[in-house]
Amino acid sequence: MIVLAFVLSAVLLLITAAHVYWGIGGIWPGRDDASCAPAVVGFRGVDAMPSSFACFAVAACLGLVPLWPLALEGVFAAPFDHAGLAATAVMIGLVFLARGVLGFTPWWRRLAPEQPFARLDRRFYSPLCLLIAAGFLVLAFSAFAA
Asked: Is the pLDDT of residue 146 over 80?
């Protein structure tokens, strides 16, 4: 399970770093702000990236999440007991599960139809959220079983 914890943490750290990058004005995967927004945000009529505050807010929400799998596997001492870490891992997993499932609903398709976001969301973003959810749930339930 330690490999799963490290892989999960690395993926989440990359996602957090991407949000920080956008917060400081990064435009990847576009060529400019106007071409980046439809790939990253995807909401109907989006023509600019979210504010730095919004990008940093998402990064802040994600900031501690990469540490959770490592703490759960005992890579470092955490100020929480093991059962609390596992219960929180379940909650984190459920958040990612909800986002992953949401990406395949007609409601989300109507809300975020812009290309290339819609295509990227179906192929990468939503499946990645489902994999992250599965990773957290596997780690959490293996911790409960231990």
From this structure: no
Report pLDDT for 33.
86
Contact 140, 86 (CB under 8 A): yes
Q: Are 43 and 112 in contact (CB under 8 A)?
A: yes
pLDDT of residue 144: 85
128 φ/ψ sector (left φ>0, alpha ψ -120 to 50, else beta): alpha
Gap between the Cα atoms of 31 and 13, Å rounded: 24
Q: What is the DSSP string of 39-79?
A: HHT--TT--SPPPHHHHHHHHHHHHTTTHHHHHHTTSS--S
The Cα 96–Cα 47 span in angstroms is: 26
In tens, the pLDDT along 19-56 reads: 999 999 999 998 998 899 999 999 998 989 999 999 99
